[in-house]
Amino acid sequence: MKRFDARKAVLEALKELGLYRGTKDNPMVVPTCSRSKDVIEPLLKPQWYVDVKDMSARAVKAVQEGELRIIPDMFKKTWYSWLENTRDWCISRQLWWGHRIPAYFVTVEGQTPGQDIDGHYWVSGRTEEEAKEAAAEKFGVDVGKISLRQDEDVLDTWFSSGFFPMSVFGWPEKTEDYQLYFPNTLLETGHDILFFWVARMVQLALTLTDKLPFKDVYLHAMVRDAHGRKMSKSLGNIVDPVDVILGITLEDLNQKLNEYNLDEKEIKKAIEGQKVDYPNGIPECGVDALRFALISYTAQGRDMNLDVMRVQGYRFFCNKLWNATKFALGSLGENFQPYPEFHLTGKESLMDLWILSRLSQAIKLCNEGMENFEFPTMTTAIYNFWLYELCDWYLECIKPVINGSNTEAITLCRNVLYTCLDAGLRLLHPAMPFLTEELFQRLPRRKPDAPPSICITPYPETCQAIPHNPALEYHVEFVQNIVKSIRSVRSEYQLPPKAKVEVYLKCSEIEVVQMLKSFENVISTMGNSSQITFMVNEEEPPAGCAVMAVSSKCETHIMLKGQIDIPKEKDKMETKKDNLMKSLAKLEDATKMPDYLSKVPEDVRFKNEEKMSELKGQLETVTNSIQTLLKLM
Fold first, then answer.
1. Same domain? 522 vs 456
2. φ, ψ for residue 29, nearest 5 deg
3. Is the peptide bond before 72 cis (omega within 30 degrees of 0)?
4. Which of 5, 19, 305, 381 lies in the 20 to 30 Å Cα band around 225?
5. CA-based Rg of the chain, rounded to a whole angstrom?
6. Same-domain status, 451 and 347
């Protein structure tokens, strides 16, 4: 009899027996299955349990004594919380899939059948034959008198997967792989299954092998959508890695929702969400850009909000690497052969020594990041080295050298450049394996017997041949700030890119002048200057210059007279100032309207605040430019 029919029958029986006292309404939530719409109710059934008290105590002790390391440390608290307050582990599940529980109910011919709930009549075995032999021995009868019925339940998934570190190598057999590779060194997984999987593996391995299954557990971040929401089919915010790699249109994204077996209402809601997040679909980003983005996001243990636009940004970084390496290889020349072992000759330029110093620091940070499982440290270091130091600065600085006639300087420069390319690609390889392999194959080799592939080439390590020079880095940073000030003025007054300017560097100390003179060619090249004049203390540059303060020890004066039409430029600035003031006033009026805080959504208010801050900054810059132009008139 089915449950609802049985309830009616019970009610009728109560009435017939005169025991029925009445019916009262009982407001409650009735759970239903989202697909079949059946009413879901709990049903008590016999289950199989494992006593994990001693197993849990050993797992706790392993972490406390440092035998098992959990990274990051903050999840030790979760470990202790679960395992110090553990209960018997229910390992049976009423499902149609999984490993069927190897437990058999015994019936002995000629004896009164036992009850399912009576554990006395249950035996276990790896096979039915093994279980029969165990039952025959237990009940003292011949095997032929034993009948078995295997339990229909299956094992909890986490119980089955808890054997993974051992079973994958052939356990319980003492195979060669098992003896060679068990226990393992590192487990990498998500922090959400620290107890469900990691703790179970540790408990089972300690109990069955008396060994920890691994020494370190690294818990990575969980991937969420750009808004921090958990990825869900019903929200339509699931990001398929293949779609990020190959790209996909919005229409195809919408079409994929039909594969999720969702209600029409959920599909409509999901389509609206996709339209907001991906109005133009997902651009093709490639596998290396996605890999680099995920590693960059991986701050230990924290959730990552995956923004596809950031992945696309790393695709542009890949393009930059390709073009920069192509240019660098052209600079090396057709018959270039690097030193068998890189060494300093003592004749390298300051910029050669600087880029080597930055390479040394990048190597140090990458190794520290890998060793400490702080992967964003690695990606940030190598990203900054390639993009901001090698591409934006060193490659630009050496163009006059490569195109010059000093053979010795060219040779030195090429060897430094090759060293940066070779080490830079090897540093980047774990995060971008495909691009770095392709580019590495285009590099000449230092030795004929060098590894044929970057994936078997040693990872760079810090060494004396590539020294770190903090003092030189400080000087170059000073020079970079000067170049930035020159470029800022050029941009502010819209000077043509090819127009060369006269630069006057006014310094408060003679030592600063001497230092800057050693970088005169660098400043001239990077600032596109026709002439650089150094001044100390009371010396004054000629009239007609725009001024930018670099530091308390240096000012940059850029000659504008003759470069721009000052009255015309002033009128343009005045017009720009008026437009900025109107835009700012309009926004300020909007924020002062009644019920602004209650009627305007928080995200809109935030954008308005950002826009006003940006307008105020632009207004200040334009006002300063007008004041400068007035002085030049």
1. no
2. -90, 125
3. yes
4. 381
5. 36
6. yes
- Contact between 339 and 406 under an 8 Å Cβ cutoff? The reply is no
Dihedral in degrees, nearest 10, Cα atoms 425, 428, 432, 433: 60
Which of these, 238, 272, 266, lies nearest to 35 by C-alpha position?
Answer: 266
pLDDT at res. 563: 81
Distance CA 505, CA 548 (A): 10
Does residue 349 sit in the same domain as residue 448?
yes
* Segments of the chain with pLDDT less than 50: none
Find the CATH number of the domain harbouring 520: 3.30.2320
Give the domain CATH number at 456. Answer: 1.10.730.10
Helix (H) or strand (E) holding 53, with range, is helix 53-64
Tokens at 464, concatenated: 């004396």
Question: Which tokens sit at 387?
Answer: 């993009």
**Which residues are within 8 A (CB) of 447 and not within 5 positions of it... i.e. 6 or more apart?**
340
Q: Are residues 551 and 576 in the same domain?
A: no
* Same domain, residue pair 549 and 604: no
Q: What are phi and psi of 122, to 5 degrees?
A: -115, 135
Predicted local distance difference test score (pLDDT) of residue 234: 66
Token pair 């007609």 in the structure block, residue: 544
Specify burial of residue 278 (Cβ count, 10 A radius: 0-12, 13-18, 19+).
buried
